[in-house]
Amino acid sequence: MSVLRPLDKLPGLNTATVLLVGADDALLQQLADSMLKTDCASELRVHLARSLPLPSNVNRPRVDLLVFVINLHSKYSLQSVEKSLHHVDASFFLGKACFLATGAGRENLCSVHRNTVVRLAHTYRSPVLFCDLEVEGSRAAMAQRLARMLQISAGHVPGVSAMSLLSLLRSSESPSLEDL
């Protein structure tokens, strides 16, 4: 069993790689396609995985940002992410990982409560983002946001580190556990 570590590979020159982990292949692919369409100074590489660990026989690049995608309409999606978290080195949660919850726009169809995802993100000291990947405009906006976060996590934005981004995202979006 291999543990995914953020610095186990050397960085590529002007290349930033994101790994999207989630059980819904179609939504992951749509998000990946939207990310690749964004205007970005870095060469973006997007990899998809249904779960972790990744196969050990694959020659994989360095991962600069790890995004756990949870579909709020699927308990299986949450369980898959929870199992995958055991295969990630703790140092990824220092500004190089986030949770993305999709399906928040149709709360009446949710089988996973938003607070469950917020608590999970809080446990791993990582930001959580909410959107509806099934809506083109929402997906495009999230793709741009993730592309920017990826550039920062890869070290391609002068003066901004992954840790400072983490601090900003935590203070602006994450409610305290007392608010839940």
Question: What report would you give on this structure?
Answer:
This protein is an alpha/beta fold. Helices cover 35% and strands 17% of the residues. It has a 5-stranded parallel beta sheet, sandwiched between helices. The N and C termini lie far apart (35 Å).
What are the defining features of this structure?
single chain, 180 residues, alpha/beta, 5-stranded parallel sheet
Give a concise summary.
The chain is of the alpha/beta class and 180 residues long. Helix content is 35%, strand content 17%.
Mean pLDDT: 87
Q: What is the tally of beta strands?
A: 5
Structural class: alpha/beta
Strand content: 15-25%
The low-confidence parts are 176-180
Report the helical percentage. 25-40%
- The succession of helices and strands, N to C, reads EHEEHEHEHH
Radius of gyration of CA atoms, rounded to a whole number: 15 Å
N-to-C span: 35 Å
For the biggest β-sheet, the strand order reads 2-1-3-4-5
- Report the biggest beta sheet as strand number plus sense, adding barrel if it closes: 5 strands, parallel
Shape: globular
Count of DSSP H/I helices:
5
